Model the fold of this input.
Amino acid sequence: MIQFEAVHKRFPNGTTAVHDLSLDMPEGGVTVFVGSSGCGKTTSLRMINRMVEPTSGTIRVGGRDVLDQDAAELRRSIGYVIQQAGLFPHRTVLDNIATVPLLLGWGRKKARAAAGDLLERVGLSAEMGKRYPHQLSGGQQQRVGVARALAADPPVLLMDEPFGAVDPVVRTQLQDELLRLQKDLNKTIVFVTHDIDEAVRLGDRIAVFREGGHLVQCAPPAELLARPVDSFVADFLGAERGLKLLSLSTLADVPQGPAPEGGSWELVLDASRRPVAWRAGEAETPVRALRDGDSLLSALNESVASPVGLVARVDAEGVLTGVSSRDDIHQRAGAAHAAALSGVPSRVSAPDPAAQSPQGLEDSDPAVDKSAGFDDAAAKDLA
Ligand SMILES: Nc1ncnc2c1ncn2[C@@H]1O[C@H](COP(=O)(O)OP(=O)(O)OP(=O)(O)O)[C@@H](O)[C@H]1O
Done:
């Protein structure tokens, strides 16, 4: 769906921001670009909608070379979300969301109806639509930013650190929201972040960049965590790689059996057969029952917290389905690790330190358009 072929970007001041990038991003998945500051993630992203022009190489979206398309038209056909949402301050939330549909000539009524639907989809009430951006929290503004990017139903969504400026709790909520939306919409999403946990949570594939604009490895999260291609990637993923891998595997395949009876500990259920606590005589330990979709990491944590080393399993309604032992959970964790290891090694380009350029020098580049693709004059129809 999105293809980079030997793409190179060198700014006029001599900084090489992207070095020989070749990467295929298939349709309908989330590809996350991660890497430390200045390693070329944003530049790579912005070349997709021609906010930055490549120095050489080819970028295709849906099989078409982006350079063969009108830049403004291309930008309107690709959703774009940035940190701080980038909303127009003097327009209501609803009009912000309706921006691109109006630019595309949908007409006010249809554009506003689409905006209203989107508002609901991203979890905001109709009342919020009448407010101005400054009357929303940071997290709510980001939701509006996502709704605005989705309003014209583009097949591709570019997201540049969209949740970077909100606190960790709101960030998790926004990530959940994006995963939920993506399940329905199945867009081709390219997502830039510094945060490896965010990348693991959201990505179907993670592309790790290093300075000088080198792509070092691109792989599904489980494979990346199990099999970093070199010490740079391993260091970047951090010491908790194993735990992150466990957070990706679910409890679904772990065997379960009946809850123990007649032993020193018994599982107390309420009238609807929902687990309440482990009880031994007078002693009771509250139980946190888990569902099939919960991670092996939470299962291991819960089995350690449980006085009997067992995890109570429940169905979607919270009703007991059985219990799983710590040993079985451990075994499944080992199998998940082995499965991730069996992936094909995924080095994509050998870093070439000699090719690295001076970093951190900002320069103006006539090929860089910071207008985010919104032509304000054409958009004044919204006011
Ligand atoms: N317009 C420009 N002129 C000159 N150099 C630039 C320009 N834009 C970016 N750069 C440089 O290109 C390199 C890559 O920048 P880029 O913004 O793509 O990195 P990044 O990985 O997205 O960083 P961050 O995570 O900090 O946003 C950096 O060294 C940056 O200073």
User: Anything to note?
Assistant: Confidence is low (pLDDT under 50) at residues 344-383.
